[in-house]
Design a protein that fits this description.
252 residues; 29% helix; eight-stranded mixed sheet; alpha+beta; Nucleoside Triphosphate Pyrophosphohydrolase
């Protein structure tokens, strides 16, 4: 990939559900092993921002950069997991199936919303982070991360069985334990975000912490620490772990 090619705008949704005194669960998706980007890794639902997302944001007269990413996060979560977030009114099961089928068929999200009498509530999402790696000769995604509360009384999330192989709910600590035991893998940004999420006792805690930090773009860098190369991130953005030995980091 030429170094001059611009980063690909993307968005991802960290969907949390509270468990009454226990750490909240997060919806995780396992990428199909054949995928070029993060094949076989656990990720949050998400994907590229497409032209339809930008067109819908323009119709809503919302911010030209943040709003398309929020729309993409909502759209991708419906498409990948069948979970409707930020839709008003909340769709019934039949409408949700129709929305997902339409997205899989390549129909524009805005047209599908109009057809079913729905609108998007972009404020249902809370800004969490923005990651922009700086790899040479690699595909680079400029990814905005958002938090959202899992909607109540919806059908069980189901994998789309195309780009993704499975999905499940687990606490951030449980996902990290699976990775540490060698039963799962995550790329560097996902691990750092899971470590940050593991600090929270509830969805409200996550939102409060997210709002305590400015929306700064995170670009990891390499540096030697005690003679060992590390991949590092800033230490003032709420992340409890800010470096990892370079050879052990699965870069994304």
């Amino acid at each position: 990939m030429p170094e001059s090619q611009p980063p690909i705008p993307a968005a991802t949704l960290i969907l949390l559900r509270d468990r009454g005194g226990m750490p909240p669960e997060i919806l995780m998706v396992e990428r199909a092993k054949a995928m070029v980007f993060a094949g076989g890794a656990l990720v949050f639902p998400g994907g590229r921002v497409d032209p339809g997302d930008r067109a819908l944001a323009a119709e809503l007269s919302r911010d030209a950069e943040d709003a398309p990413a929020r729309i993409a996060a909502i759209r991708e979560t419906i498409e990948e997991a069948g979970v409707p977030v930020g839709l008003s009114p909340a769709p019934d099961a039949a409408t949700l199936i129709a929305l997902r089928q339409g997205l899989h068929a390549g129909e524009a999200f805005g047209l599908l919303l109009d057809r079913h009498g729905l609108s998007v509530d972009l404020d249902a999402l809370t800004w969490f982070a923005r990651w922009l790696p700086a790899h040479a000769h690699m595909r680079i995604f400029d990814t905005r991360f958002y938090l959202a509360r899992a909607p109540e009384n919806v059908a069980a999330a189901t994998v789309d069985a195309t780009e993704n192989a499975r999905l499940f709910w687990a606490s951030a600590a449980e996902v990290l334990a699976e990775c540490d035991a060698g039963r799962a893998t995550v790329i560097f940004p996902t691990r750092r975000n899971l470590e940050r999420l593991a600090q929270y006792a509830s969805f409200d805690d996550a939102v409060a912490d997210a709002r305590a930090f400015p929306p700064r773009t995170i670009t990891p860098w390499s540096e030697e620490r005690e003679g060992v190369p590390h991949l590092c991130i800033p230490d003032d953005l709420g992340y409890p772990v800010t470096s990892e030995i370079l050879h052990s980091a699965m870069r994304g």
